[in-house]
Amino acid sequence: MCCDEEQERKWSTPLAKQLFEAISTTGPVPLASYMRMCLTGDIGGYYSGAIDRSRDQFGAKGDFITSPEISQVFGELVGLWFVAEWISQARPKQGVQLIEVGPGRGTLMDDMLRTIQRFPAMASAIDSVFMVEASRELRETQKNLLCGIGSPATESKAGLHSTGKRLGKPIVWTETIKSIPIEPDKMPFIVAHEFFDALPIHTFQSAPASRSPAKPSDSSVAAHADAGAPAMEWREMMVSPTSPVATEPDPQPFRSLESESPAEFQLILSSGTTRHSRYLPESSSRYRKLKQTPGSVIEVCPDASLYAADFAARIGGSRKHPKPQPSGAALILDYGTSDTIPVNSLRGIRQHRIVNPFSSPGLVDLSADVDFTAIAESATLASDGVEVHGPVPQADFLELMGIRERAKMLTQGAEKSAADDIDKAWRRLVDRGPNGMGKVYKALAILPENDGRRRPVGFGGDVRI
Ligand SMILES: C[S@@+](CC[C@H](N)C(=O)[O-])C[C@H]1O[C@@H](n2cnc3c(N)ncnc32)[C@H](O)[C@@H]1O
Q1: H or E element: which one contains 76?
Q2: In ligand 1, which atom is closest to the CA atom of 100?
Q3: pLDDT tens for residues 372-391?
C-alpha cells in the first residue's frame, strides 16, 4: 500500500486515525488495547465520549438498553438482595458501604437506594456510597440523578464528593475501584451490572511453536515432543488496519451490514508469542489444558480477574488486607458463559444492532461474554475468606427474589396501558427463550466464607434472621 494512499485515507472517527497512527509506529496492538482505547480512551472513547457530549448510549434513541432501564423492579430486587444480606450478616449498625462499578445513568443505584430507604436500620448503617465510573459525562448524569441537578460537590484526590438526596449519605465518584480504600471494619456491598462485559479481553490461539525446541528442563513440553506431537504455544490476536482498498468480505465472525461503515481494522494472529501470550494463558489450568489442541481459542480478561480479586479482598480479607471477620457481598449480573471459556464473543453494538466491532471506533459499543468461572476462580484465589454462589440464570434469580409479586403490586391501581408496560417490562427480564434476557444474563454472588452452610436468597437460600 503506498504512503500517499494512506495519507489520504479518510477515517470514520478521530480515534480511528489515532489508532492507525499508533499501530503504524508500534505495530499491531493486542485486542485488549484496542478495546480500552475504543471504550474509555481520552480521544473519543465510547464511554469517555469526547466525540459528542450530548450522546446518550442508553435507551431507545441510544445503542442499547439495560435491565435497570427496562424496569424499576430490577433495581428494587437488587436492593432487596443487599438488605437480605445485611440481615443475614447480623444487621451491623454502621460501616456499610454500597459500591457500584459501571453505574451507567445511575438508575440501578437510585432504585436500590429507594428500596433501602424503606429499611431505616439498614439505611442508617450505610457510611457511604461509592460509584466507580470511567466516564466524566456519566458521572455527571449519575450525580444529577442521585444528588439533584446542580447539587454542590467537592473534589478530592479520590474523586468527586456529594450528598445523596434519598438517604442524605455521602456519595463518592471514583474512576477506578483502587481509589476506594480497603478497610477491615467495613461491610462492602458491591454491585456490578453489565460492567464486566465492557472490560477489555485478550484473545489467544494455540499454534505449533514458532521457535527452537523446548529446553530439556521443560518436562511437559518434552513429554509431548517424546510422543511425536509438536510443541505448542499461544499466539495473540492483534488488531491492525485493513487495507483502504480492500474488496474482500470481512473475515468471519464479523460481517459489516451494508448500511454500516466498513471495518477499518481487523484481527490478525501474531507470528510468534507476545508478552501477554506468554503469561496470561498460563494463569489457569482451564487454559493450559487447551494448549496442546491446535487451533484452540480462548478469551482472557485480566481486568475482570483484578476486579473479582479486589471484591474478594474487600469482603474476605487477603494477605495484603487482613480482615478479622469477613463481611459484605458482591453481586455480579451480566451475560456470559457459566462453565466454558468464551470464544469469538467480541461484538459491536450500535443503535440496537450487532455491528462489526472494528467499524467506527468510539461510536460503537464493544463488549464480550463474561467468563463467570474465571471470576469465581480469581475471587477464591484472592481470598480464603470468600465463597462463590452461581452463576444462576437471571430469570431464576429474579423469580426467586419475587419479581412476579413486586410487578403485580405495581400494576394494581395503574392505568391499563401503564400496567401493560410494567407487565411487558418485567417479563422481558425473565424471558427464558434462547436469546431471552432471563437466560442469557446470569447472576453470581461472592459472600463471606461459611463452608457453604448459608446460601444467599436468589440462589436457593432464605434470609437468616
Ligand atoms: C454497559 S454500561 C452498564 C451501565 C449500568 N450498569 C446499567 O446496567 O445500566 C457500562 C458502564 O460501565 C462503565 N465503564 C466501562 N468501562 C469501565 C471501566 N474500565 N472503569 C469504570 N467504569 C467503566 C461505563 O461508563 C458504563 O457506565
Answers
A1: helix 72-88
A2: 6
A3: 999 999 999 999 999 999 99
Phi, psi of 240 (to 5 degrees): -135, 160
CA of 225 to the centre of ligand 1 (A): 46
Which atom from ligand 1 is nearest to the alpha carbon of 105? Answer: 9
Beta-strand pair 265-269/96-101: unpaired
Quote the cell numbers at residue 194: 453489565
d(CA 147, CA 233): 52
Span from the CA of 101 to the centroid of ligand 1 (angstroms): 7
What is the Cβ-side half-sphere exposure of residue 172, based on CA atoms within 13 angstroms? Answer: 19
Which residues lie closer than 8 Å to 5 by C-beta, 6 or more apart?
244, 245
Q: 39 CB under 6 A from ligand 1?
A: yes
Q: What contacts 24+ positions apart, CB below 8 Å, involve 353-357?
A: 353/257, 355/256, 355/257, 355/260, 356/250, 356/254, 356/255, 356/256, 356/257, 356/260, 356/262, 356/263, 357/254
Q: What pTM does this model have?
A: 0.93
C-alpha span between 399 and 430 (Å, rounded): 8
Residue 110 in contact with ligand 1 by CB distance below 6 A? no
- Closest C-alpha to ligand 1, atom 18: 134
Residue 45: CB within 6 Å of ligand 1? Answer: no
Q: Is the distance from the beta carbon of residue 37 to the nearest atom of ligand 1 less than 6 Å?
A: no
Stretch 94-119: mean pLDDT: 98
pLDDT tens digits, 138-151: 999 999 999 999 99
Q: Is 66 in the pocket of ligand 1 (CB under 6 A)?
A: yes
Ligand 1 site-directed mutation target among 63, 69, 133, most atoms within 8 Å of CB: 133
Q: How far is CA 179 from CA 79, 156, 189, 375, 398, in A?
A: 24, 11, 16, 21, 32
Q: What are phi and psi of 364, to 5 degrees?
A: -110, 130
Q: What is the pLDDT of residue 64?
A: 82
Distance CA 21, CA 15 (A): 10
Could you give phi then psi for residue 390, rounded to 5 degrees? 90, -165
Q: What pLDDT score was predicted for residue 461?
A: 82
What CATH architecture does domain 67-199+301-448 belong to? 3-Layer(aba) Sandwich (3.40)
Q: Give the separation between CA 243 and CA 202, rounded to whole angstroms.
A: 23
